[in-house]
Amino acid sequence: MKTITILGSTGAVGTQVLNVISKHPDRFKVVGLSAYTNENLLREQITKYNPTHYYFPGGAVEVQSSLFDLIEDEKNTKCLGSLEELAEIPADIVVSAVSGIAGLWSAVAVLKRGGTLAIANKETIVAAGKHLKALEKKYGGKIIPLDTEHSALSTCLDGENSKYVKKLILTASGGALRDVPKGQFSRITPEQALAHPVWKMGKKITIDSATLFNKGLEIVEAMRLFEVPQEKIDVVIHRESIVHSMVEFCDNSIKALLSTPNIALSIERALYYPEKNNASVAPLKLTQLGSLTFEEPDYDKFPCLSIAKEMAKRGDGACIAVSAADEVLVEQFLKYKIKLTDIPTKLEKVLAKFEKIGDVQLDDVTRIDTEARKYTYSIGAK
Ligand code: MG
Q1: What is the DSSP letter of 101?
Q2: Which residues pair with 235 in a beta bridge?
Q3: Which of 71, 119, 261, 360 could form an SS bridge with 241, CB 3.0 to 4.6 Å?
Q4: Count of CB atoms within 10 A of residue 240's CB?
């Protein structure tokens, strides 16, 4: 039986992880849960899964205690003081499903105790991936990507010698706006941008998918996780979301991972690793698929993808700053305070301001992140 802690258990990924776990109760025991704001769902989860520890920062202290006193009495579960402390609780796998840079120090904590980190929190990989890989090697832990594309890439790379790898090819569905003319982008509402054609995900990542900034983050994520330079990473638009990513080798052969689109695939692969098991993903009926299509991304229509490629070239400092700015800007867009087209305009300014920082020590990540957020507000985010 594997013990599992889920950081961000009430979000889109966290709930799917619990869904997978509840199908295999003989194989997994939940020992830690955390939520950021959704106290009611966290309470339900604690009651159902009976973890030994949890963490909940959201809301006032009195709200927290009134909600959780009862649980603590009944269930003998303990509230910890930070996400990091929760990450330090012994667990075979810690799933990091939090959104944004808030997941950084808990990821560091897991790797510093030589633990296994199944990570969906891409902003942390983008900001500090080099440091996470160094900690993985130093303390003998393991980072397992939960992002569908990176889970697919790691499967395609399994057993391969990196010297024969020519390219990593990330597939992208194209997001909610792939067929919307560019001229309409300034009038796009949050509701329109949130209507993703394939994947049901959290709001931040869904908006990032609509601007293709998500794919830009995923380029950096792949650079850090697989330690390859940006020139070796391509993006193709693949509407059907059947091919989850590919690896091209020096003999010009391409290896791909295909499945019915379902985030549970990468979750099950992570939880069962190195075994394979399935309870969630429907079989892929090849003869009913019709055609699979691949197109070049439209960089003119989706400037956020070019900006992300630029930040990747500039190094850690630019990646931290632009990714932090994007968190601010997406939130502002969701609150109707800025237009969708303001996102790339302001990201470009943030990139210009922070592009020269270069490599960054782990202890400086939070500072640069904070400075970038302040700067983003100063240039007109409200
Ligand atoms: Mg992805």
Answers
A1: G
A2: 170
A3: 261
A4: 16
Reported as type and span, the H/E element at residue 243 is strand 243-249
Of 213, 215, 191, which Cα lies nearest the Cα of 203? Answer: 191
Q: Sort strands 53-55 and 116-119 into parallel, antiparallel or unpaired.
A: unpaired
Distance of CA 263 from the midpoint of ligand 1 (Å): 9
Given a contact cutoff of 8 angstroms between Cβ atoms, the answer to whether 124 and 101 are in contact is: yes
Distances (CA, A) of 257 to 154, 188, 222, 327, 371: 10, 33, 16, 30, 40
Sheet arrangement for strand 78-79:
78-79, 53-55, 28-34, 2-7, 93-96, 116-119, 142-145
How would you classify residue 35: left for phi > 0, otherwise alpha for psi between -120 and 50, otherwise beta?
beta
Q: Collapsing DSSP states into helix, strand and coil, what is residue 263?
A: coil
* Centroid of ligand 1 to alpha carbon of 218 (angstroms): 7
For 324-354, the pLDDT digits (tens) are: 999 999 999 999 999 999 999 999 999 999 9
Beta carbons within 8 Å of 334's beta carbon, 6+ residues apart: 190, 203, 207
**Angstrom distance (rounded) from CA 96 to CA 14:** 8
Please write the tens of the pLDDT for every residue from 195-208.
876 777 788 999 99
Give the per-residue pLDDT at 60: 47
What separation in Å is there between the alpha carbon of 15 and the centre of ligand 1?
A: 17
**Lookup: tokens for 163:** 């010297």
| Residue 371 CA, ligand 1 centroid: distance in Å | 27
Distance 76 CA to ligand 1 centre (A): 37
The full length of the chain comes to 382
Query: Could you tell me the two tokens for 254?
Result: 């391409």
Note the pTM of the prediction, 2 decimals: 0.93
